[in-house]
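Hey, I'm writing a tutorial for new members on how sequence and structure tokens pair up, and I'd like a real worked example in the thread rather than a made-up one. If someone can provide the structure for the chain below, I'll link this post from the tutorial.
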Amino acid sequence: MPISAIGGVQPQTAYLPAASHTPGAGRNRVVQGTEAGRLRPQETAAGGPDREYTEEQLAQIQELKARDQAVRQHEAAHQAAGGALAGSATFSYERGPDGQLYAVGGEVSIDMSTISGDPQATIDKMRTVIAAATAPSDPSSQDRAVAAQAMATMIQAQQELLRDTRQSEDAPHPSAYARQQGVAAYQAQS
């Protein structure tokens, strides 16, 4: 279950939604959960196979089909690029004049938590988050915001890694320290 939190200690989850264009807004909009990423289309008595449709209804059905395909491709791109960091896609649906449910919006959660004590692992993880957020050919404003947040986290981790590297370079190497102690002990004995 995704956890939303502010700060670097608790896991953070961002949501990468598909663009929120909703054809025919206000018409038979249905919000449902998912079953393996999609609901099975359902026919109603009003939308059986023998029904004839007006040109307007046929155009609406075609628009909904195209939107459904675009939304599913958008969310699949997030999931593929996000790998284990990406959650399952959830969709919002609209019922068309044919009684079928069409995905008109969606989102994928992605884990944006930092790896405590390992800035390099955090950098690698944020690279994956950025790739997942920008994977669709048409990233939404929310997708770009998630990528920007991941970039900021990655920059902080890079600064931490640089700071750690400088501190380890400034500290005497353990073998150099042991050598200095040995020389000092020898000189004290002489």
